[in-house]
Amino acid sequence: MNKPNMPKTVLGGAGFYIVLLLSLAIVGASGYAILFHGGSTAREDPDASTAAPDADLFDDLDPNGPSLEILEPETLKVPDQGVTVQAPVQMPSVEVDDTPVKPIAPSLIVWPLRGAVVSAFSVDALSYDETMGDWRTHAGVDLAAEVGTQVMAACAGKVTSVEDNPLMGTTVVIEHDGGYVTTYANLQTVPAVKAGDTVSAGQIIGAVGSTAIAEAALPPHLHFAVEKDGDAVNPQTFLED
Fold it and tell me: Which are the contacts of 128, defined by CB distance < 8 A and separation ≥ 6?
């Protein structure tokens, strides 16, 4: 029996493998070229390439690098805000008067009451005392007034005593600035003030009474006396009509 005819192979077994290896080599070379040359071309941006920088642009730079000038706070200048500073005003000199100041005694400014003088002030000459029946001085003035007539303080001051004098009856004594003292006698037994009270000029301190035994012969009146530093003075020199 005859075997079928098979086509004859151009290359033998060894030739086939040689051809196969050459084909693989060609394919590998082509892939390498595409991978390294084509890929590199794809990554490069033709527009991204720049020319070398011009060396002249850096001629003005400090080769040692830029410097930073630091200003201390006190070296900073504040812009002029237009504020005008005036020079201190020279105060005029004042002449000082070093003359010692002497206190001026207050004047008696009101009458204790309004009434006729029934017995005048007399310390330099003796006057006859009808009650005592003799000649003596009189260190005050007696002002006629009905019993119960209100009596006022002649000046502001402090009441130093309220007493029942054996001869002059109920008596109020007021001390004033400047060494002055005023006395109000022959008052009713219960005056309107007490020792230690502060009174103002014209304040009511009591009322006319009939308690002064030493002046009982006279009509109802107020006995009013003024002293300056312990010396009796005429009340009429202080009080005006």
Answer: 134, 135
All residue ranges of the chain with pLDDT < 70 are 1-25, 27-94, 96-108, 239-241
CA distance 233 to 120: 12
Reading phi first (left if > 0) and then psi (alpha if -120 to 50, else beta), residue 65 is in left
Task: Write the CA distances from 195 to 60, 181, 191, 232, 233, integer angstroms.
Answer: 106, 14, 11, 22, 23
Q: Enter the DSSP assignment of 208.
A: B
Rg (CA), the chain: 67
Closest CA to 189 of 166, 215, 163: 163
pLDDT at res. 240 = 57
pTM of the predicted model as reported, rounded to 2 decimal places: 0.55
Half-sphere CA count of 133, side-chain side, radius 13 A: 0
